[in-house]
Amino acid sequence: MTAALGAIGRPVLLALASVGRVALFAAQVIAHILRPPFYLRELGHAILQIGWFSLPVVALTAIFTGGALALQIYAGGSRFNAETVVPSIVAIGITRELGPVLGGLMVAARVASSIAAEIGTMKVTEQIDALVTLSTNPLKYLAVPRVLAATLSMPVLVAVGDAIGIMGGWLVGITRLDFNSAVYLKNTVDFLEGWDVGSGLVKGAVFGFIVALMGCYHGMTSARGAQGVGAATKAAVVSASVLILASNYVLTEVFFTS
Hints:
By secondary structure, the protein is an all-alpha fold. Helix content is 85%, strand content 0%. It has one domain (39-256). It has helices spanning 2-33, 40-50, 55-77, 86-124, 127-133, 138-175, 181-191, 194-220, 226-256. The radius of gyration is 21 Å and the shape is globular.
């Protein structure tokens, strides 16, 4: 019995210890955001890498998602003679859920892996030790600009993705489903509310924070050697993706459950 309980408790304690380490790391990053010195050049470079260079993949994901969603809703609505709901459901589905979630997952695949590999390589090649030798806080110099950049850039990416996703549904609606363009756009505008878009932007900021935090954390805690960097990269993507899905449920529960 003791051995069985130990086999169950050991992984639980290890998981709780990992959660505690991540929470402490996040608290340190947040505490350093408002403390000088401020590395604005690193922040600008991170915004360019995380925000601007992620735009093509987010845009492609959004336009195909919007088109596929329109086709699916039309196919399902036709069973109940409710084809006219396509513009409304596409708009709310993209802005509330699919835009931020799929955008976050795509950015996690691209950015979290990149950050973890970059910082992990710096650790292996002792560049982080060199920063300490030069009296530079590695957390302040490496993690804070990336986390702040992702938190600021992700809502912009979500907003662009929402617009392109709705456009994808509109293109499919007028070319494949015989919708009138003006009617489709009017239904979209009339149905959407400000909080539908705003909730997605808040989710985007949270997802951006998670993506960069996981990349920095796993990069800075990676083991030595190429194998350690590879493991850190994989762990960053997996943990960021799982946390995005979990936090999406929590935020949806908070925003839309009375």
